[in-house]
Amino acid sequence: MVCIAAFIILALIGVFVALISIFKPKVGKAYLKAMKKAWGCLWKKVRLQKCETGFKDDVKNSLLSKVIIKHPKWVKPLSIIIEVFSIVIVVVAVWAILTAIKSLLALWALGSCNVTKPSACSLGAEVCSIDESEPSNVFEATGRWFTEWGEIFEAIPDKFKTYNADDYDFAYISINNGEVAGLPVVVDIFDPGCSVCMISYRNQKDTGFFDTHNVRLVPFAIQDADDNYKFKNSEIVVRYMFASEQYKSDLSLYIIDKIYTGKNSEGLSYQQKFNDDYSREEAINKIESWLKEAGVDKNGVEKIREIANYPETADKMNENREIVEKQLRVKGIPTMIIDGKKHTGLWKPGE
């Protein structure tokens, strides 16, 4: 292990040695000589051959040369410490390489370098991430590490897959009050509390995207592994959207349009109010006031409230969650199925 650890350390300091050797060529020659020996040892290890003991001894002797003279009794314990330290260096280096490979594969296959907490990956698309709960102990963390590899390998075939909106049995809302023949079908998965979803919706509305596509809006309230909702009132908004759509078409679109584009008398966006300020009761009252604005009478509002609390409405939400997280393996939203592909992240004009 000593020669492998030496190779790793020499590789890490190579850049600095290269700079120093410009002014002190002897340093560069000594480095290349040591690097050649370390590489030879590493190459033999890869081929399951024994390393030359000479290099290992050279490393130890160079580290212990002063100790041998002054404290000869320390040589043996320090030699053991060097061996242990070498093992630690090798283990950390291997773990770092595997983690880097895993992160790159995850970024390519899943759109985020962090599988279970996409929000921690700054290299991924701009999304509202679907994070899993943090492991509570080292055993869970170790198990999670291996599970992430499984998720990555399962997702790799999806990169070469052609997606068809009709292959997924979503509970959705049709934005055109029924689909128009000849227009391409798009599935748009969003969370009412997601700011990225709000920007995507505004972009689509402003560019006429809804007029040129049959958009199936899939309201989705992000939850973690412990079933906690990411955004405070998304669950009740989704319930009322499904209930309103069942009562009368376009009512649910009226609700989400208010949340994504509307502001209160103080100039604050309604999405911000729903996420940060409104209690559940206040959120319900606001939604029901919008329904009245849209022409729904008192009896109609009561009926929509009743439908929102149906077990069937909760079933729709659970079925959508199963499709989004298990079948599509989505790690963040908004996510769209468009032109046979899965597009995750902010939708921009021209995409």
Percent strand equals 5-15%
- Measure the end-to-end span: 52 Å
**Overall average residue pLDDT:** 79
CATH superfamily of the largest domain: Glutaredoxin
**Basic shape:** elongated
The helix/strand series, from N terminus to C terminus, equals HHHHHEHEEHHEHHHHHHEEE
Note the topology.
Blueprint: H1 2-12, H2 14-23, H3 25-46, H4 53-70, H5 75-110, E1 128-129, H6 138-155, E2 173-174, E3 185-190, H7 195-206, H8 209-212, E4 214-219, H9 234-247, H10 251-261, H11 270-277, H12 280-293, H13 298-308, H14 311-327, E5 332-333, E6 335-338, E7 341-344
Parallel strand pairs: 3-4
Antiparallel strand pairs: 1-5, 2-4, 3-6, 6-7
